[in-house]
Design goal:
By secondary structure, the protein is an alpha+beta fold. The chain has five helices and 29 strands.
Length: 618
């Protein structure tokens, strides 16, 4: 066909082919080398950059070498095509150069087809290798350590629940507690509440409770669970009508909080990253709990002199019923909560709100008497000045047929009970005698098993800013236990209700779905005489979590975050943040943040540069 064309026509054709081939080769080579120029770092590379470990597998290196070699071969073919074009342009009608050029063109085109076929195959293989590398590293790690439907605890809408995740040896007569961070629409948890506020039936669209091995098909029926709630509609108690499990073998139970649960404003409680809801399991033993709760310690101490902004708190030996243990004493808004009360010198009950926290083990009073502001601008509330204050925690009336079980008045109790409905053992004698309504006389001759103590208030305000004195594990510490709790020790007692998952959080970097729970522990003097009963001198924050990603599998950074929402027992916020290393006292308020022991004027960031969130997922 070429022989039928004139020399001029063949020359023009050669030029056109040359231009087309060069353009084609240009775009082809651009596509070959583009991944090297514009590639974005993967999760694996980000993690590796933070940890200093190698991030590229041998398989990926081989695939990249293949791609580079294909690029070099493409350049060689381009040179050959340019050479063939040169022969066409300089042939001047001579048949030998034209024949040679035709042969080079043909072979080059065939070669290019082979090269780009190989490129397509190599790209396909490389993409699969990259996907496999990602899955086998970052994604596989997340899949192995992430617990589906768990992240709402701590990071999401849930602040706490009982029994805890994966708890064992839970008694058959236990009740289930769930605490949200915001008020919940009770109708989404209690069946028929929207038409009858006295309803106590379980809304199965919102909550399911069932033996794990039988799945949800055998969930407890709506009329087999009595549901109660606190005044704020944040904490709900689920009381199975019949004992859970069996007397023959341990039984694992699952609780599912569905995405049909609504906040009080009608919006969904579970949204965004955690929109699928929440689920956890625990194991019920074959035993019934008939051990009464008792008081471990109190703040303020007995007969102590305290500034009037001190918080009254009672620490119990086990989780307490949050509905029976919390409420408001406000003469302007009855009904009045009197299961716990604080009285002044004239016998007048101090108005305020009793709140539960610390895994349902601590109850504390916040009064209504505003008396100042802390460094964060939050209101401080005070007790009556220069008075002897007496605090009384009342035991509940007993069930005569099953002491120490309490006897409810309808669906509520007239005193304090634990999660298994055992009445308070005020003197920790093991011999429970209930409330004044019972005919039982206590061993010590009292007519009730209440717990009471008194202390004196002054006209002073304690304004000391709480500070962190030690961290476990320490800053940037490596090789830590993957399962041990985190401990942050303070120099003072903390207001328990401020130690929650809104003021304390824990974030993995890179992020994956992970739950965490927050509690408060006591710190004891290391120099106290052995013969004396240990007396706490301060508090520590305890962060529970699932197993961390082991360093054997690549490891991850974990960032505990403590905000200014944490307050001392005197209601003073942590501002500026004071802790180990350079975050010391007497530093400017312009640097309120403490980031890995270094004071900062801006919020703390992870090693990869992301700002650490306060109480929401990244």
């Amino acid at each position: 066909m070429l022989r039928s064309l004139s020399i001029k026509q063949r020359s023009l054709l050669a030029r056109a082919v040359l231009v087309a081939v060069v353009v084609f080769c240009f775009f082809a080579l651009t596509s070959v080398f583009a991944p090297f120029v514009h590639a974005q770092p993967t999760d694996l590379e980000t993690m590796g950059a933070a940890s200093g470990l190698p991030t590229t597998s041998i398989a990926i290196l081989v695939a990249r070498i293949i791609r580079a070699v294909l690029g070099v071969i493409g350049i060689l073919f381009t040179i050959l095509i340019l050479y063939a074009g040169y022969l066409y342009l300089t042939a001047r009608g001579s048949p030998e150069p034209i024949k040679k050029a035709n042969k080079i063109f043909q072979n080059s085109i065939i070669g290019l087809i082979i090269v780009f076929s190989a490129y397509g195959i190599a790209s396909f293989i490389l993409s699969r290798l990259l996907a496999a590398a990602f899955t086998s590293s970052s994604q596989a790690i997340s899949d192995q350590y992430s617990e589906p439907l768990a992240g709402s605890l701590g990071a999401g809408i849930l602040d706490d629940h009982y029994p805890k995740r994966d708890a064992i040896d839970i008694p058959r007569n236990t009740r289930i507690f769930v605490t949200f961070k915001e008020a919940i629409n009770p109708a989404s948890i209690i069946k028929g509440y929207d038409t009858d506020p006295t309803s106590t039936a379980l809304n199965l669209d919102g909550v399911l409770i069932f033996p794990t091995k039988t799945k949800a098909v055998s969930a407890l029926a709506y009329n087999k669970v009595v549901v109660t709630h606190d005044d704020a509609f944040e904490t709900f108690v689920f009381d199975p009508v019949e004992y859970l499990g069996s007397a023959e073998e341990d039984t694992n139970y699952t609780v599912v909080l569905t995405n049909d649960i609504e906040k009080a404003d009608g919006s969904l409680a579970f949204s965004g990253t955690y929109s699928s809801g929440y689920e956890w399991t625990f194991e019920v033993s074959t035993e019934i709990d008939l051990t009464p709760p008792y008081v471990v310690n109190v703040i303020p101490r007995v007969d102590s002199n305290e500034p009037r902004n001190v918080t009254i708190e009672i620490n119990f030996s086990e989780p307490m019923d949050p509905v029976a243990s919390t409420g408001t004493y406000d003469t302007l808004s009855p009904p009045l909560f009197t299961n716990i009360k604080a009285q002044g010198a004239n016998g007048a009950i101090v108005e305020g709100i009793w709140e539960i926290s610390n895994g349902y083990r601590t109850v504390g009073l916040t009064t209504f008497d505003a008396c100042g502001e802390d460094p964060c601008g939050d209101t401080i509330y005070c007790l009556p000045t220069n008075q002897r204050i007496t605090a009384i925690a009342s035991a509940a009336r007993l069930n005569p047929a099953e002491i120490p079980q309490a006897l409810p008045s309808g669906i509520v109790f007239d005193g304090l009970v634990d999660a298994a409905m055992n009445s308070l053992d005020g003197d920790n004698s093991g011999d429970v005698c209930g409330s004044n309504a019972d005919t039982i006389v206590c061993v010590n001759g009292n007519t009730n098993d209440n717990y009471s103590w008194s202390f004196l208030t002054t006209d002073e305000i304690n304004a000391t800013v709480p500070r962190v004195v030690s961290l476990d594990p320490g800053i940037a510490e490596g090789g830590v236990s993957t399962t041990d709790d985190l401990n942050v020790t303070f120099n003072t007692f903390l207001k328990s209700s401020t130690v929650d998952t809104s003021s304390v959080s824990l974030w993995p970097d890179p992020w994956y779905e992970m739950w965490f729970a927050v509690g408060k522990g006591d710190v004891y003097s290391t120099v106290a005489p052995v013969a004396l009963t240990p007396v706490p001198i301060a508090n520590k924050v305890i962060i529970e979590h699932p197993a961390f990603v082991s360093t054997d599998l690549g490891g991850r950074d974990y960032w505990p975050v403590l905000t200014q929402g944490i307050k001392s027992a005197y209601q003073i916020c942590m501002y500026p943040a004071i802790g180990p290393n350079s975050c010391t006292a007497n530093r400017p308020a312009s640097a309120p943040y403490c980031c890995n022991g270094i004071q900062s004027s801006t919020k703390c960031k992870t090693n990869s540069g992301d700002t650490l969130p306060d109480n929401s997922p990244p």
